[in-house]
What does this fold into?
Amino acid sequence: MSAKKRSQNINFDKLFFPKSIGTKKYGLPIQDNLLSYFLFGDTREEGKNTKLMETTRGIAIYRRMEVYELLSIDYRINRLTTNNFEDNGIHITEGDLSKLKYTVSYLIYSFIFGGYQKSTYVSDSTSKGLGVGTYYFTPEYAVFRAVFFLAAEANNGIPLSLKDINNNAGIRDFYAHLIVGYGFGDDFSKISNYVTHLLRNMPSHSDRSIIFKAQQDIDKYSSLYEERRQELIDIRGEKSFFQADVRDFIQKEFGLKFISEAQVRRVVGENEVTLINDDGMKEIIKIHGNMQFDCYLKLTRSLKEYLGLDNKWIGIAVEAMGSYYHGDDFPNQQESDRKKKLICRDKNIILLEIWDDWDKSTWVSEIYRQITECTGVELHRAKLNELCKYLGD
It folds into this structure.
């Protein structure tokens, strides 16, 4: 059952009212100022205008809270101990406190995925119609929440903004992965490295139960990731969000459909090639079945004539270069990249590489620069814009 359907009968507004979260269900006589302190970390002074009052009274009740605020509430409640209640003259058992934490976490999850607002936080399905549930969106949310909690723990219990998490982890947009439900792609390795860094730098007074649960959620995603990866490739045609972005971009720029995940040996029609490498030495390269181009376009004679390319060119290959997987930590991948470059040069394939750490505004100029560098022909963008008209639909 999807998260959207499960959450229809839950009234998230009640989370903020003392009688519903305290007296009715858990027998906790929590006053507004103390509840506001637990939820938002603001003033504990009696009679003060609290964040709770601003959020729940009058017209402000309809104000949309940011995901950062919702996760901050989830984190603060999950960090509470029975001592926090005892210090304020309130008794709660460990069992009831665990139920309270679970309830708050579930309500916030349901609020993010549910239909409480005209504008939802997360789409109720991917662009391919895969709904929210066990395999899509929910696993990303578990990782998203876990990283948020770990970052707060490492920051002495103070939640970090999503922008700070992006910067610290070296990710362009962590939240975007939650929205699209496609998985994390190359960014998952960056996330894993960031988590390792956070765990190594945890203060001694950190909440070990929060850390343990966050690690469990991330490990669970890791085991699910490989199981789900092939299904995503079959449905979507790309290994990662970045690869999908590159393919969509290149197809829009050329106005032509590129094949996704094209086997190199099918493109060149050989299982091995003998060529001269960059050192001027003869080299035999065996082309294994798992050697693939991320995107590929076969060049027809009419297309080559229109673009002014020599007839020797057989196609255009595009590689989405994730800076992590194609970096120094993966020598086998770098060796595969080297071989593909040599094969493209020997077999007259125009190879275009787009890196994930480039500003997207530079992709167009980089594409044309690489085409000119490879072929010696300076293509004009206007000519490509007229390409569909020339070839016909």
User: Anything to note?
Assistant: DSSP finds 19 helices and six strands in the chain. Confidence is low (pLDDT under 50) at residues 1-24. The chain has two domains: 3-236, 241-391. The first strand starts at residue 259 and ends at 263.
